[in-house]
Structure formats: C-alpha cells, structure tokens
Amino acid sequence: MKNIITSLMLVFSVYSYSQTEKETDSVVETTINALEEIVITKKKVLYTQKSDRLVFNVENSIISEGGTALDVLSRAPGVVVSQDGDLSIRGQQGVAVMINGKLTQLSQKELANYLKSTASSNIKQIEVITNPSSKYDATGKAGIINIVLKKPNSSGLKGTAFTSYARGRKNRTNSGFNLNYNKDKWGVYGNYSYTFRGEEERKKFNQLQYTDETRQTVSSKNHQTSVTDEPLTSNNFKIGTQYEISPKTNLEVYVDAKIGRYQNIADGRNTLFNAMNQLQFDAATYNDSKEKWNDYTYAFSGVHKFDTEGKTMSFDFEYETSKFRSNQFQSAQNIDPASMVEIDDRRGFIPSQLRVFTGKVDFVNPLKEKQSIEWGFKGSIKNNDNPSIYEYSQNKEWITDLKSTNHFEYKEQIYAAYVNYKYQLEKLNIQGGIRTEYTAINILQKTMNEEHKDDYLKWFPSLSLKYEFTENHAMHASYSKRINRPSQFDLNPFRFYDDSFNYSQGNPNLIPEITHAAEIGYAWKSAFMATVYFNKTKDVFTEVYVYNPADNTTVTSQINVDKSYNYGVNITNTAEIYKWWSVNTLLNVFENKFMGKVVNTEKIDPIVTLNMNVQNSFTITETWKAEANAQYQSKSNLGIYERDSFFDFSIGISKQVLANKGSIKLNVTDIFNTNNFYINSVIRQTSIDKRYDLDNRIATLAFTYRI
C-alpha cells in the first residue's frame, strides 16, 4: 500500500508540473466580500513565496486543524521534526524559532513542550526564512521559523471559539477562544486555550559491541524495549491592549502565560547477551518523570511615525520569567533469578529558573524615492539557575550521587547592532546589510566551585538581489552568515539520566557553529519556484555516544566536528488541474557532507536525500472542502546517525455551517502509520539501532465558530 500511495503522489506531482501554463494560484478556499455593487473574490493560497521566505498559510489547511503547533511544523515546507521535537530545515539542524517575530528563549525540550501545547487553531502562518536579512538575529544556522499567531484587528467585537477531540493511541483534546474589541483609538484582545495531549510511544534500542574497531567479532548484544505513556496538560493565555495616542503613535502592552505539566511513564526491559549468545543480564525497567512549568512574558511595544514619507521608529521590551520542575524516579529489577547483579533505584530533582530581559529599537529612514535604510539595536540578558540533585537507593537509604548532582548557573548577554540598505531600481531590488553581535557568557559550577567565562564579537553580513525580467518571470540570489550557539544544557558537564542505563552529558568545550549560506532561484508568477542552495558550517555540533559494557550504560554528548556542507535543490509548484482540484508540490533534494574526525572515524558518508510533499485541495461545493496530503523522505544522515526513509499520508474534509460562521472539520493524519523515526549508527567498536514507533496516526474532529 505504501508503494501505491507513493506512486500516486509522484503522478500528482508530474501532472501538476504539466499544468503550469495556467495562470492560477493554489485554491484552497474562496471568500467573497460584497462592497456596495462590487464583488471581490479572493483566493486563499496554501503557500506563498516571498523574496526572503516561504509562507505556509496554516489557516487555509484542513489537515492542520485540531492539532498542535508541532504537528503543523511537521507539514511546513522543508521542515522535519525529530522524535524529540528537534527541528531541521532542508536537512540541516540548528533552527531558530520566533513567535510573532520574537525569538524564543526556551531550551529544546521546553520549546517542544510549548509547541505541543499550542493549538493549531491559534496559528495564522508559518514563515520559513532560510536567509534572513541583518535585521533578524543571527542565531540559527539553518535559518528561522517564524510562527505567526492569529490576532484580529477589525472594529467592534470579533473572535473565534474552537474545540476538538482526537484519538490516536490515547485521547487528545483542545479548546479555547480568541476575542478582541476595538473602538476608536483603543483596543483590547485576549485568548485562552486548554490542551490535553495523550501519547504513547514504543521504543526499541539494539546495540552490538565488537571486540575491536574492525568490527569482525561481536563481544556483546544489548536489547532495550519500552512503552511510554506521556500525558501533557497545558493552559495558555494572553491578554493585551493597544492604544493610539495620536495618528502617528501606537502603544501595546500584553501578558503571555504558559502553564503546564507533563509526565513520562515508561515500562521496559533491558537484556544483555555475550558473544556466545548466552544471557548475561535481564532486567525489567520502570521510569517515571513528572514535569511542571509556568512561563510568564510581560511586553511593552510601540510604533511612531515621524512624517508621511515613511520614517518610523519602533521599540519592543520584554521580560520573561520561567520556572521548570522535574521529579524523576528510575528503577530496574532483575528478571533472571541466577543473576547476582544489583541495580540501585535512582531519583532526581531538577528545578530551573529562567529570567530573560530583551529590548530592541528599530528605525526605518527613507533616503530617496526608492532607497531606504533600516537600522537598530538589540540587547538580551539571560540567567538560568539549575540546581539538580540526584540520589540512589542503597540499603534502604537515599544517598546523594556526586557524579550527577550539580548546581549550574548560566549567564548570557548578547548585544547587537545592524544596518540594512534597500534600493529598488526599475527591475532590480537590492538589499544588503551587516549585523554585529557581542556575546558574553559566564558559567558557574557551584558544586565544584568552578567558573568559566567567554566573550566574542562576530560580524554577520547579508545580501539579497531580486531581478524581475517581466511581470511573470524573476530571479533572486541571497547570502548570509549565521551562528548557532551551544545552549546551557549542551555546556553542562554533569549527567542527565533518561533511564538507569542511558544518560547524556554536556561538553563545556563546545564552541559556536558558524555558517555561510547562499542560494539562487527562479520564479514564474506564484506557480513555479526553483532554488539552488549551498551552506558551509564550521565547528559543527555532532552527537556521539560511548557504550560501557562493564555497567551496560550508554552516554551521549556533543562535540565539534571540523566542518560540514549542506547543498541541494528546492522546487515549489502550484497548479489548478480543474476548478475543483488544485495541487501544491514541494520537492527538495539535498545532501549533507561532514568533514573531520568523529570518534576515530575520519568522515561520515554523505547521503543524497529526497523530500517530497504533495498537497491536494478539493472544492466539492461552496461549503464542502477536502484535502489529501502525501509526504515522503528517503534516507538521510543526522551527524553520525542515518535516518531511514519515512512516509506520511493524511486526509481531511470540512463543512461550513451556521451561515458560514462555523466549520466542522474531520482529518486523519498518517493513515498508514508509516511516519516513524528509525535511526542507526556504527562508530568505533559499537553499532546502535534506535526505532521509535511514534503516535502519529490521529483522527481529529474539530469545530470552530467565528463571532
């Protein structure tokens, strides 16, 4: 069945390319607005190509309804989500995430939980920006993903209420509302959402340990399995107000809150065999991790217009405070009665307190009729306090584990300034700029009474050109330099236990990745776009692992590899095959090539990877719409790991009700349960195979009502 669907997907793609002579956009939904005697029909497209970004219009997608922000990101063009919620663009990791144009300060795990708890009904667009201008933060070697949330701005009382129920292996629900009221110079808005996400994952880890690095003779085999129950509950709300002081000045104040809890309960088994396939160790494992967090952001912003020629000043100040608590319990009991190996129970108390202050000021100065300069400043101050306590049980007493217990404090300051020049000729648009960022880091290991300081100044130029041959034909080229800094968790050398046999460890010697990215592309109207891109990264982050057969444990950490190359071709095609059927096709072919010594391995073999997404939209009647989305990705490499191919086929249908103020949508994602995460690696004397059977096949019924 998988091969049949893949073939159909390819047929849709080829057929859509043959239709590019038609002057159409992707028709997903049509709205008609009556203005006196004039009727304006506006086509809502699914994907929009701009000069510096590809926009995924989430509110026009039926399949995206009733899910979470993380679900939607997995269907964004060129974006792939790992089993841990880590994001990549065009096969490259190191992605910066913004919410409404503001960079998030959360860790990878905290960001994944936030995205899982954000209802897709609140999302308007997802912007994939691969080569941002110097106006944006330089962080994120693969580029920036900007999640644009809905924010009604029409006069009077407007809003939306939504609710949904979904079923995979567990139940999932989310409900909420968005309201705003605008009158004259004043407006107030707010939203609230409640999310419960039940999830069950099935994991299998297999490791082979060899006698030497020739890997001719096996010395031991380790097999681990587990089934997890992962309920997540969150309450997110935001309230704000806008006021027009004068026709030239607007101010805005808001409070944004995220409150949630998450639990990961895993029952598993760990079995070890020797070279003669004789049982050496057999244990039942149990892990219970309870997490709670609350995050509050207080923001004050404004825009002032100096004159009618476009000279403006905008400012934005934010203070974010976040508390995170994790209580862990891990145990393993021998199943083999003949075994004399004793395994101590473990527990951990892992709190953290994050405080971030961010402020920025931006100016736009028109020089002449077709020239302008953008410039501005930004500063951010971050403090993360992480006192972690691990204990193990011995003789019915809990004893502090000094190898893991640690009080870690991370302080970071980043100050930036930029200037960006725009010049529009008759057919040529030029945008060039430079950004400088000064970074100061202070790491304090209070347990060991060790302190590490570092500071550096980096320059980040950017350039983009767009030439319009005619109204329908255009080419663009762009270049940018970017940085990916290690997080505080990447730098913390103490242990973080996933279970009794697997833990991760930070590397305080990690240095930032620096990327040079360039691309050139061609566009025919909004129907066909093709881009060739090339990225070179120095001091690449790469995950490595070491297996210790003495205690049957595996430790993972990060190191810097000399350099890597990421290059490929990206094609987007939009076509209307019939008035009732339109097709969006996204094709990306890329290769990652790593250079440098990785745990006694001189290189990692590159893999040519194909990623293809075909979105079919059907207009059945004026009130009935449908979608069918197929995505396929061939084998790819993620550092030392090789990821198997995966396939996703999802469908959805919607019906407008209640005088078109309401809509009912039904969708089923990953119908054939083929979108899984399988990775394997062979380095040194160890081979490892990890198989995550994800909870991706979800049926969702959603209802939305517009006030």
From TrEMBL:
Coiled coil: none
Main location: membrane
SUPFAM superfamilies listed in its UniProt record: Porins
Subcellular location: Cell outer membrane
Key words, A-Z: Cell outer membrane, Membrane
Ranges where the TonB-dependent receptor plug domain occurs: 68-143
InterPro entries tied to this protein: Beta-barrel_TonB_sf (IPR036942), OMP_b-brl_3 (IPR041700), Plug_dom (IPR012910), Plug_dom_sf (IPR037066)
Origin superkingdom: Bacteria
Alphabetical list of PANTHER family matching this protein: PLUG DOMAIN-CONTAINING PROTEIN, TONB-DEPENDENT RECEPTOR-LIKE BETA-BARREL DOMAIN-CONTAINING PROTEIN
The protein's name: Outer membrane beta-barrel family protein
Organism: Flavobacterium cupriresistens
